[in-house]
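I am still learning, so would you mind making up any protein sequence you like and the tokens describing how it folds?
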Amino acid sequence: MASQGHDSIKEDISEKRDLSEKDEQLSVEDGIHDGLVFPTEEERLTLRRVADTIPWNAYLIAFVELAERFSFYGSSVVFTNFIQQKLPPGSHTGAGFANGQSGALGLGQRGSTGLTTFYQFWCYVTPLLGAYIADTYLGRFNTICIAVAIALVGHIILIVSAVPGVIEHSSAIGAFVVGLIVTGFGTGLFKANISPLVAEQYKRTRLFVITTKSGERVVVDPSLTVSRVYMYFYLFINIGALVGQIGMTYSEKYVGFWLAYTLPTIVFLICPFVLWFGRNRYVRSPPTGSVLASALRLWRFAAKGRWSINPVRTYRQLTADDFWENAKPSKQGADKPAWMKFDDQWVDEVRRGLKACGLTYSQLNNNLTSQAATMSTHGLPNDVLSNLDPFALIIFIPICDLLIYPAMRRAGWNFSALRKVTAGFFTGAAAMVWAAVVQHYVYKTNPCHYSASTCEDAEGNAVVSPLNVWIQTGSYVLIAFSEILASITGLEYAFTKAPVNMRSLVMSVFLFMSAISSAIGEAFVALSADPLLVWNYGVMGVLAGITGVVFWFTIRRLDSEEDKLNNLVAGRFNPEIAGAMGGGVANVL
């Protein structure tokens, strides 16, 4: 055993030395790394690592995302009330005013949960098409422009569903559903490409050494810089979400749903102007052809003969160390298939891309908005509490970036990306446990007890629990921490581990995992009604906790490969391979 350990250490040192030698060989004037000092192997291992500054192009794209998220969350935050609650008596806009509950369609909590969960699913499925269009035909920037136009049409249809004269009739349901589909389609095309585009504005890919003002020599790590880009990208997302959600909840309550859909649409109109302004400033990757079909064909070849009736055995064989190694062209000899025109390096890139797809986390539950309607809101709109999530994110993202994460690195604590995601599962589970406890006391303190969340008095007025709605704060703050740990890190991991020509694809598959989460959530719609809501939150919490445990035991070995995956250097560009693979071999430094 000791001998094996020494061999492993020798192999690791040899591998790192090889990477270092490759770096030295690539020390050329490329316009990106000119004049930089690259670290020695000893400096790689001993010097503290820091992030680089973020280019202004990235902030421009983040502002586009801010406007898009303002419109997305500003409109969707009122969906639960629009679908679930009935149109208030005498109202032609759905407004509930000071003491009433806003509403429109009156489909109930199950109908609301079903439609909003479908919307989430749809928004996370369509990125697959967005990635294919960008990679094969239009490129990321042009696909984003088309996505903005489609989503704008969807927002206009949502406005139509809520205007007086439509909202009072059953036709509002049809218009609203069409608006969801069109808006979700545009959102999906947008989401697959905006995240890779913002990170691509930072072009350095190699470690280099600088001396700080205090005289300390540190290593500037591109992967930490991408992490910082996504931290502030997510900050912009939540600034847009916070402002949009607060404004629209009050618009819905005091004016009507038509205003809650119109204002986000007006803000969304900023997107095309900012995109046009920066069109010649952005780093734009041209379409290189989709590698999805070839990657799937390679996976099928690697999986051949590894299937078994025993699911445990199948899992072990599909995740074995030699799964990708045995599929490399160099291992096929005279039996190499005619379609296998790529090299071993491309197989490593596909493996790396699929590893990046393996992270996902979906934790927000729209039932929390419904829960707020069953407690004493003291004049607040029941859906305004959801703003605690983006508010907490706006506070804690800079704290994590400027204080907590640097302090951990100074202390030598390796809080890697995969460890962050694992912790995110557990904080998400804690958020659902908090919600379950709150729901238990809602049942316990209202006049109906466990038969319903709200009752009616002798005059037909709704009677809610005396509990103050602000006790939901714990759930939203814990959800915010889970997003910082899991969602932001997931975006970073998906981008940094994906080969250049697979970034939109990997990001779309990453988002598709969230669609699967929404589909699973759809299966629990039956629990989204009284008196089963404690079970609803409890089951979600338990599932998140179990998933966190399974996730860590699945990826703990991958965690040790972090530097290796970050430093994977692609081979030289081969036109013949690129033609066969649709640009499948990228010249990555």
Summary: Strands lie at 49-50, 208-211, 217-220, 375-376, 455-456, 462-463, 465-468. Confidence is low (pLDDT under 50) at residues 1-28, 358-365, 568-589.
